[in-house]
Structures are given as C-alpha cells and as structure tokens.
Write a structure and sequence with these properties.
ten-stranded antiparallel beta sheet, 151 residues, 54% strand, mainly beta, Lipocalin
Length: 151
Amino acid sequence: MRTLRKLFVFAALAAGAVALAADTKPDFTGTWKLNVDKSDLGGAPITALVVTVDHKEPVFKLTAKGTAGGEDFEETESFTTDGKPSEDSHGGTVKCQWEGATLAIEGTTPDGTPFEHARLSISADGKTVTRDAVQKTDEGEQKRHEIYDKQ
C-alpha cells in the first residue's frame, strides 16, 4: 500500500511539473542568424539577416540588421507580449500574445490595415527559432518559414 501511495504522489508531482512546463514562456534573448538555406522566404529578397533580441517578459526588444535586394538595412523594434498594442518603427501597430509557448504576432499598417500574422517559437534545446509568417504585399500574400540559428 505504501508503494502505491508513493507512486500516486510521484504521478501527481510529475503531472504538476508537466503543467507548469506547458505554462512556461520561452526567453528569446540572444543573437539569431537567419539560416537562408533552411528557410522559405516566399520570394523576399533577403540574403542576410541577424536579429539581436533582449527579452525580459513582457518586454521584447529587437534589432535586425541585414541585406535585402542588395541594400543593407537596420531596424529596431520594441513591443510587449501581453496583447497590448505597440507602435512599430513604421507607424503601424503590433500586438503580441502567448499561445502556450508560441508567440503570436499581429501587425497592421498605420491606417489599420492588417499586414502580418506571424508565430514565433523556439526549439526545446534553445538553439533554433522558427518564425512562420503571412505578409500582405502589393503582389498578394507572401508566406514565409524562417529558421534562425543561435549565435
């Protein structure tokens, strides 16, 4: 009987640990390099991209430096992950919220037109970030599957 009680207590503790782990929000802090070979950029002319993230829940700050269409660029953004709207560097609105361990991102243009739907997740070993996005462009929808390797 004692063994059965111990087994029950262990099972209850393990279930609690699993539930707690499911509620854990990952920390995206670090420097991430776009793996162009493993990514499907949907025709976007990006040839290089490095993103540096400073993530202190709920604040998510990033600086992206890269090359697209032969032109170098750099952008800095800051938003929160609590679903509250934040203004981006282009005057649009970004709203982010957690869906389990995935960060769901919605972006609109300055006039309120939906522009992007994205989902950001990190691998269990913390070495890879995946960003799946659908962006609306003048040419229609552009779907992207981006893979970033931790530097």
